[in-house]
Amino acid sequence: MLNLWENTRIAFIGLRSNKLRSFLTMLGITIGVAAVIVLVSLGQAVDTFVRNQFLGIGTNLLIVFPRPDENGEVRQLTLDDAGALADSFRVPDALYVMPQLSLNRTATFAGREVSARVVGVTTDYLAIRNRIVVDGRFFTREEVESAARVAVLGPRMVERLLPDVYPIGQSIRVSGVTFRVEGVLNSIGGAGFGPNDDDVIIVPLTTAQIRLGGERILSGERPISNILVQARDAGSVQAVAQQLRETLREQRDISFRDDDDFDIFTQNDLLDTLGNITGLLTIFLAVIAGISLLVGGIGIMNIMLVTVTERTREIGLRKAVGAQKQDILLQFLTEASVLALVGGAMGILIASAGMALTRLALPDLAASVQPSSVALATLISLSIGVFFGIYPANRAASLNPIDALRYE
């Protein structure tokens, strides 16, 4: 332990005596460590952000979509399909079943015109999507049944369409149809991908079908975009998925020989897929950043070889007074490790500052340097110092003391 402390002290003396050279040698390690920590931390923050966004739209959700066949034709979902899924005898583990119709329409108010996403839903929307009305009210079951022209707006839609007026009670027009604004939803934030659920107009499903959609399928029924189902708890999600599949196959008369003409996605499926994507992206970026560490390690090896050459007479003198091969080896390994660790420490400080700036610029991302990233960076720095210091240290330890003393 005493020898290690003495070698470390000598290493720091060497760093101070060649400040510029030491700084330039450590720079590669510093940049590499900072890049790895920043990219890994950002990857973890993005993964957490994505998961929170999905959990924010509701828990234990399953979504049923129509699936195109091999010819690209789609058999649309209908209210009869949703009614079959809402049957508690056929899908006993479903807590809520909500059909919805998504449309893109033009909304106008007082001469202002915006492109709007209009979603027709039932009164289960607030419960299944984990949202609340912060001003006004949501529409009632009677208004759904009567196809009433009432609307509830997301906060972002209020900013775009009615920026300077109190929205409740105002009349807006959607594709020429007048709607009375009855409520404003809470903000859940944009996920950064897909539609922004704050920038939406929510209307009764029947109103969207009759007054805004108008489309019918061959049977005369009005189609819907998808069906949202909420399982009773996380443990019953897979059971609900199986119940939905069996019920829909029976409802839609699908032969046992034929494939499903619908898809059922669960939150776990979506989160796992997105987690795999963000994980692979993080690893890819970290590998690219790791190239800087490789370059930094080569720089350490190069400077240590120069150091061995410069200190040949010193090495010979140490051996002449009794220093063993392992003593010389340990001394130069320690110096290489100190170079790498100091560079790594500087990289950690730079990464911490970078994460602080990221939090200021993107507060929703909640990016931070994780202790695991710091531990990984420290381990990598030490490993680089040892790996790239082995050859120079061994070369120094193998010098013949007589030849070393004669070296000019």
Describe what you observe in this structure.
The chain is an alpha+beta fold and 408 residues long. The protein has two domains: 2-53 and 272-406, no CATH class; 76-260, no CATH class. The chain contains 13 helices and twelve strands. It has helices spanning 2-17, 19-56, 79-85, 125-128, 141-145, 155-161, 205-213, 237-251, 267-310, 312-320, 325-361, 371-397, 401-406; strands at 61-66, 77-78, 94-109, 112-121, 133-136, 150-153, 171-174, 177-185, 201-204, 223-224, 226-231, 262-266. Strands 3-4-9-6-8-7 form a six-stranded mixed β-barrel. A two-stranded antiparallel sheet has the order 2-10. Helix 2 (19-56) packs antiparallel against helix 12 (371-397). It starts with a helix and ends with a helix. The mean pLDDT is 83.
N-to-C order of helices and strands: HHEEHEEHEHEHEEEHEEHEHHHHH
User: End-to-end distance, in Å?
Assistant: 34 Å
Helix content: 40-55%
Identify the strand order in the major beta sheet: 3-4-9-6-8-7
pLDDT < 50 stretches: none
Helical element count?
13
Q: From the alpha-carbon coordinates, what is the Rg to the nearest angstrom?
A: 33 Å
| General shape | elongated
Residue share in β-strands: 15-25%
On the 0 to 100 scale, the average pLDDT is 83
The total number of structural domains is 2
Q: What is the structural class? A: alpha+beta
